[in-house]
Amino acid sequence: MTDTTRIKLAVDAMGGDFAPKEIVKGVNLAIKNNPNLELVLYGDESQIKEYLEENERVSIVHCSSKLDMGVKDPIREIRTNKDLSLSKAFQAVHDHECAGAVTCGPTQGVVVAAHMIVKKVPGMQRIALCPIMPEFGGKSRLLLDVGANVELRPEHIVQIAHFASVYLKESNGVENPLVGLVNIGSEPGKGREVDKETYEALKNDPQINFFGNIEPKEMFFSDCDILVTDGYCGNLVLKTLEGTAKAVGKELEKAIKSSFWSSLGYVLFMKGAMKKFKKKVSGDDVGGALLFGVDGVIVKSHGSSNAYTFSKAIERCAMGVRGNYVEVMKQRLSAESSDQNQDK
What we know:
Layout: E1 7-12, H1 21-33, E2 37-43, H2 45-49, E3 58-62, H3 74-80, H4 85-94, E4 100-103, H5 107-118, E5 128-130, E6 142-144, H6 154-172, E7 178-182, H7 193-203, E8 209-214, E9 226-228, H8 231-256, H9 260-282, E10 288-292, E11 297-301, H10 307-323, H11 325-343
Parallel strand pairs: 1-2, 1-4, 2-3, 4-11, 6-9, 7-8, 7-9
Antiparallel strand pairs: 5-10, 10-11
């Protein structure tokens, strides 16, 4: 059965390297492909209108300012400048005017704005930035945290594992998501003291389907649906994967151009397969990373996103809203809090 419920999302039209052009073109694509979507664009109205195709399901809220990618003090900027496009988009989520928000804004600014404006879900100790990794071995995987927190204690990692599990079940239909802990070895007892403690906490939690430790080299081949670690390690892993994919692509291109026969073989036999591979590792179909732990569905797309990628980020946000995972997690945390109060 097709869901005909209208979903209203806020879009920060001024965030990212190619805003507002690519952002607005992404809006045009998303609104064409999703008849039950309504979008509110926050940003410079005159600039937005240069690229926006007229549609009754799209509106504009003019904002005189944007959060620059190189801002040195996002906390101060967000606190003092109330007309930022990012802040107004997030305020719409906080005020329940929109069900979710999408932005290409700077990661630190997005995390700060989420903390200050959208606010954490009651009971959540930390928030986490969670990209969906490219699909290999028949499934895609969540990796978190990748930068919202440099350090996390074991109880924080357990809690974000809960949040990710609820998301996959409610929004993606994964009934019992398998959770792995990113570590330097697969055996129990590996890693830093915090990793050992996290291993035990995940293993002993009855609501988490725990696989065990996962080495980064096994991430794309494991049965795990969710890979958890602190923001420092997660960010290193993610950027290493991105860099490796770029390096492999450049070396393949160099090898193809190295001789006439290599070029001919590529055209005759490999061109289609290489296009599919490039699309898979690029992550364009994923759209962006989810921000778990805040009281609303927030998707952070890459700063260099093109129109297609941003349209997919919008669709990712809408899918999260349909899954209602934030409300399910709030209910779980509320029940846990009640149980703890009864035990006292």
